[in-house]
Amino acid sequence: MTTLNDVAKKAGVSYSTVSRALAGSTLINAATRERIIRVAEGTGYQVNHVARSLATRRSFTLGLVVPETTNPYFPKLIDLIVHHARIAGYSLLLNISGTDQSEEGRCLQALHQRRVDGIILTSGLHGIVGREEIDLLQDRELPLVVLGWVPEAEKYDLVACDDAAGGYELTNHLLSLGHRRIALLGPKVCRDKYDRIQGFLRAMAECPGAQPRVQTGIYTEQEANTAVHELLGSDDSPTAFIGFNDMEATWIVNSLSDAGISCPQEVALAGFGDMDVARYLSPRLTTVAYPIETVAESAVTMLLNRISAKVDLSVRQHVMLQPHLVIRQSCGAPKQFKF
Amino acid sequence: MTTLNDVAKKAGVSYSTVSRALAGSTLINAATRERIIRVAEGTGYQVNHVARSLATRRSFTLGLVVPETTNPYFPKLIDLIVHHARIAGYSLLLNISGTDQSEEGRCLQALHQRRVDGIILTSGLHGIVGREEIDLLQDRELPLVVLGWVPEAEKYDLVACDDAAGGYELTNHLLSLGHRRIALLGPKVCRDKYDRIQGFLRAMAECPGAQPRVQTGIYTEQEANTAVHELLGSDDSPTAFIGFNDMEATWIVNSLSDAGISCPQEVALAGFGDMDVARYLSPRLTTVAYPIETVAESAVTMLLNRISAKVDLSVRQHVMLQPHLVIRQSCGAPKQFKF
DNA sequence: TACTGTTTTACAAGCGTTTGCAAAGAGGCA
DNA sequence: TGCCTCTTTGCAAACGCTTGTAAAACAGTA
Fold this sequence. Notes:
The structure is a homodimer. By secondary structure, chain A is an alpha/beta fold.
């Protein structure tokens, strides 16, 4: 493996001169720089980032922790973050904490040991699990940005979306179409006061006669299917369904079509997230668009600022983003309803 | 940041002793080892992998290059590879080469500079683009495994799937249902002799009276939509459609339903890949299951063997896997066809 | 020519580990 | 007690780079 020294010998200069030439330092003659660069290219020299990191104590690597990849939200997020990191000259170490986030602590520790310059931690259904490890990182002043609202958010730099506002807006849309019995199916309340379920409940509470049904604990297509059938079998079966996210909505639409119920003619359906699948589904899904591009960009920007500026660590930064409703074809007025 | 030295001072031994204690060397007294480990834990010492990598010339990091993440095949692959790598004690540097793979060379170079122990390169629609950079890596004897069949495959270690066999099996299934006019829509032939389109054409050629239509250059939902409408408008409009992958199949099913054509009643549809979406789609999609779990595991295993064993680099290893047909609900017999 | 000031280059220390080798201790035996 | 072995520990070099500082080279000026 060619090193700085090899290049130096070949160019007849010392290795520090080569280092400066390659780093574009001003303390060097333009002509020698050119010559050295040409020699370096000739030998196929590739800078050793490991050695550089050790010397500079900067790895130009970011760590990303994500719970899973089956929910298409996460791949998209990964893609965007890789992209923004790369623009800024950073590589990305990817860790997967598991749907139950049980590996979260270990992931953080692994990233710490690899001396990443900063970490983006995507919180999941369980919020943050590796609090201890985070404390250690914060003692070491290693920049870390949490994605998604979590309890005790004031302890972290954080980028999140006001899902409650999204749930509120979506629910009001359904209410305005005339729906009163609306069921929301999903795993669990996980964003505290900013949870979409909270927004749903608030909108329903504000509407006289509205009958909210919230069915949590739904993690699989099977569970969604069972829940849909139970709800449809009840006396006051809902005229509209909301999936906790677009994936749950696809499960619901399948359950409905299996039961011979057409959507949106007989029952309205909405999702959350505005993933690609929302546009592929038939009927195309009315959903709440999550500002994922902005989330990714804000997170990277915030992290890079922390890394370079090291500004006042005692004040944590928060960015709260707003989602917005995307109306497509999956929600009509309830059958028995006439304006 | 606590170092070996800090721990050593606190424990009253030299840093090399600490190093040995933490590495579990036998050249050390069990009692002192215990004591040192306890001291290390007390100080929150985290080994510096950068320094370790420099000293050992092993980073315990793998590089993964993937073209994009919108096709759900890639996220799933990433997830599996991260998982297998982690089991073996490796971290994962993720690089995205772009749908056009224009960044592939740069990705490989970046991984090289970061001194990963090995690279998994996922080839895309364009096969391999960074041949030059690969040559350089191979000169340096950096282990690299290519995913997906590419021209001049004999030059690389490679794990691939015989898509042609999958296309052949799927097409024969449609033929056996009575379809003769079958259209395949997709981007382009990209797997050489192992391409699914080749398998399709072979099966069609073997069936008297079969009329294959292959429409390439279809990269977006819009393009798929146009193609479907053109095909449906022709005299001998196809009775069955095959999507190059499950994503293209979802585009087709939407075009069909927009055109008021029911699937599978009026037209059959099949996909390729058996991604999650194939099970969510209505109708649930008949498709060719790609052995993605085996691909991921084989690739990591092959790479790790190369890294540790360094066996006979002159002989490249190939693993060819077989896909298999998954019959669901999207393919019936053609309308005018009676057995 | 000698001196000063300004590039330009070389030297050397340091980043935090690992690891071969030497040294120190401990214990056994004559 | 002295010698030898074996175990345990410490020393120092190395990994490949960055960077502060000293030295050299080169002009320009008096």
